[in-house]
Amino acid sequence: MSSKFIAFISALGAGLLVASVTYAQQPPPKPNPFDVVPDKMPNDIPYGAPISLDRADAALAAAVADSKKHDWKMNCAVVDSGANLVSFKRMDGAQLASIAIAEHKARAAVKFRRETKALENGVQAGVTYLLTLDDVIASRGGIPIMEGGKIIGGIGCSGGTGSQDEVVAKAGIAAVTK
Q1: Would strands 142-147 and 85-90 be described as parallel, antiparallel, or unpaired?
Q2: Nearest residue to 136 via CA among 164, 117, 161, 153
């Protein structure tokens, strides 16, 4: 055997030895938090009777008033406990794309029984499987409307930044919940 061949085999063996020692020193993989099985169903909030048109309009009036106070042009929607549109307001000059987004936020808040901010936070934290679920909108501004511990509807606002949308939606919620 040639000395070059022996040197090659020696180098290869040393490389494999270093690689196996390096691999063996890696920390064990972290457990997947999604493998944890909770004892109780998260967000197990019951659906109630649908919000009335009068209350939906009151929520939208408060949302629009708050939006005007800040000089924000918004689209705002209220859906019932079945995620069906009850009432809608489009302010003059509001972004056209936000018409559908406002309704989508309201529907998602009802269907997923949580604020759309929670979906936004999940996606930002790397929980990307949320994006595979039907009807998800990972943008704040959609909030369930609660009465007696039950979801009676949802409000969605869009047209500004996510934080502006959320402020206006909360003003609408405050007008119809105590």
Answers
A1: unpaired
A2: 117
Q: What tokens does 98 get?
A: 């936000």
Instruction: Express each pLDDT in 61-81 by its tens digit.
Output: 999 999 999 999 999 999 999
* Confidence (pTM): 0.81
Alpha-carbon span 119 to 109, nearest angstrom: 9
How far, in Å, CA of 169 to CA of 73, rounded? 13
* Shared-domain flag, residues 165 and 137: yes
Task: Report yes or no on 161 lying in a domain.
Answer: yes
Interatomic CA distance for residues 56 and 69, integer angstroms: 20
Domain that residue 22 falls in = 3-35
Q: Tokens at residue 38, please?
A: 């909770």
Joined together, the tokens standing for residue 177 give 């919940």
Same domain, 26 and 61: no
